[in-house]
Amino acid sequence: MENLKTYAGQSLEGNFYAIGLNYKKADAHIRGNFSISENAKEEILLQAKTDGIPSLTVISTCNRTELYGFAQHPYQIIKLLCEHTNGTIEDFEKVAYIYKNHQAVAHLFNVGTGLDSQILGDFEIISQLRRAFRESKKHDIINPFMERLANAVIQASKRIKNETGISSGATSVSFAAVQYIMARVPNISEKNLLLFGTGKIGRNTCENLIKHTKNNHITLINRTKEKAEKVAGKFNLIVKDYADIQSEIAQTDVLIVATGAQQPTISKELLYLKRPLLILDLSIPKNVSDDVLENEMVTLVHMDQLSAVTDQTLEQRSAQLPLAKKIIAEIEKEFNQWADNRKFAPTIKALKNKLAEIKAAEIDNQRKKIADFNEVQAEILSDRLIQKITTHFANHLKGEEGSAESIELIRRVFQLETA
């Protein structure tokens, strides 16, 4: 799969690339600069079509931003990312990774199965990948290669979830936040807790707070009050108006921010404190301004500091890695064989057609020359020879690491048309 310019008889522009950055080298600030809003995702896909990129998928989570697609050069995709975020080419080069063809495929398998997640075995990423590929399909910017690859990764994720214990034990950003609070705040069941933001992370955090802290003093605030009321209704919690956030912060002991905005939603101007306040920011980009630390009563913790959760759980998950990798290797191998075979399928098909033309002309010639010519037997014998010849060529191409030269030689020798 070193060069995928031909695929299923179609012309594919360039190679398959995975470009991006994640929590391993990019801190929360840098990841925030490269965070892609829903509108920006759509704009990237639309511009990619205009730029002639045949297939592209975009994912942006709190831990990573990645683009997968076909291009003549990875810079075409990197440029799209930087034009639609606050990130720069210079920043990207410092922390990013670029994978090509087989390596890009391997990377997507690791990402989609939770093996590359900040918390090993976190399967939330697969639903985000599903949505990303659906968006690409909706905008008609996904080719058969990437569509099949997406299905293969989803299959691997399902098998790992069902056949291994790599997702066993409670461990996630929201769980880690609750563990952090319980370890550092004495008498947590009696403290006032305020959760600002009731998106997915907010809801998960809320569930973990109720389950593990046994606290009845949890207040929810969301810019859209109806969303907070919907979450509160499940757990019989208090909901306050967004306009009351300043007074609510003044009364709370722990503030958890999971608002998912592009700019800080909490700053020092909102803080009129009479007691110590622990703030946990679970948002990317950061939604709590660093200026809150000017208030001596504030302790601020960002999600990156919460990744070291429950060593025992992570040890249990790590023990399942060999089995998970074995499943990935099996499905990845099947996909790569399919992809590699599709490279030369048009050539083999054209060769078979060419040999069929030669056969038809020769049988017609022999029919005219020989009075009792057995055309049926000639057809059977010729078809078997054609099948054997094309099978030999196919096996030769399958067995070669770099078969582009062999494909070109076959095309020239037999004067094949494979457009």
TrEMBL record:
Annotated pathway: Porphyrin-containing compound metabolism; protoporphyrin-IX biosynthesis; 5-aminolevulinate from L-glutamyl-tRNA(Glu): step 1/2
Residues holding NADP(+): G197, T198, G199, K200, I201, G202
SUPFAM superfamilies (alphabetical): Glutamyl tRNA-reductase catalytic, N-terminal domain, Glutamyl tRNA-reductase dimerization domain, NAD(P)-binding Rossmann-fold domains
Pfam families for this protein: GlutR_dimer, GlutR_N, Shikimate_DH
Residues annotated as domain Glutamyl-tRNA reductase N-terminal: 19-164
Site positions for Important for activity: H107
Tree of life domain: Bacteria
Domain (Tetrapyrrole biosynthesis glutamyl-tRNA reductase dimerisation): residue spans on this chain: 324-416
Function: Catalyzes the NADPH-dependent reduction of glutamyl-tRNA(Glu) to glutamate 1-semialdehyde (GSA).
Miscellaneous field: During catalysis, the active site Cys acts as a nucleophile attacking the alpha-carbonyl group of tRNA-bound glutamate with the formation of a thioester intermediate between enzyme and glutamate, and the concomitant release of tRNA(Glu). The thioester intermediate is finally reduced by direct hydride transfer from NADPH, to form the product GSA.
Protein name: Glutamyl-tRNA reductase
Gene that encodes the chain: hemA
